[in-house]
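=== RUN LOG ===
request id: a7f3
mode: sequence -> structure
chains: 1
length: 257
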Amino acid sequence: MLEEMLTAQATIQAAEIQAKATLTAAIYGGIAIAFGLIITWWTALHLQKVARIAETRRNVYLDLVEAYSNMVSGFYTIGFDIEKNWKLQTTLILNFSKAIDKTTFVCKTETKSEIYKLLKIFKEKYLLINGEMNSVLETLGELNDLTSRHEQIMSRFDEASAKLEIIKREGHDDEKINHILKYFDEKMDESERCIPLITEKAKELDAKKTPMQLSIVKFVDELNDLILPISHMLRKELGAKTDVDLDLKVHLSAREI
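=== RESULT ===
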């Protein structure tokens, strides 16, 4: 009887041990599953974050490329209509500045360092260009004033001519005719005094425009030299492969065109 009781007790203890082991295994298994789910969730979240950052960078960098291209094109077209195009160029420069600010916000530190170097040189050179441009615009304004004045003189001359024809058709009035002829002489003198001033001012404008345009070309060339390595760094951040040597050759060839 005692032997049977001991056997039963041993069986019960074995069952309890097995149950505890099973429970422990289940707990560890649950923990492992939960941990695996957490790792999976964290990995997916991290990948989504990386993807969003990459997409943001791509959009920002493309905006920068567009803003820079528009600004450079604007510099080359300033000479066609200085007064109008310089106002437009100011807007293009502002857009480029905004695109640069966005880029420095999302790019890597080493890229940001190169961008700041570009901005420092850009500011120094732009102030010089802006000074030359202000001088050109001032001279252009003076030329426009003289031209407008001459046009007004000629307009009054035409009005007097039309009035003289009316007097002739209505009958000779020597006093009126003499008065109009005297007016002709006065306007002719004004026109003759105005023409050399216009000619001189136009020469002065041309003398300022030529070095200003050369300064712009030099300025853009320097910008392109500085922007090239930055473009390589930005493309590298996006995972794009770049042949630096080939890009440099293309860049130098384009300058010679």
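=== NOTES ===
The CA atoms of residues 47 and 201 lie 65 Å apart.
Helices lie at 2-77, 82-106, 109-170, 174-237, 244-256.
=== END ===
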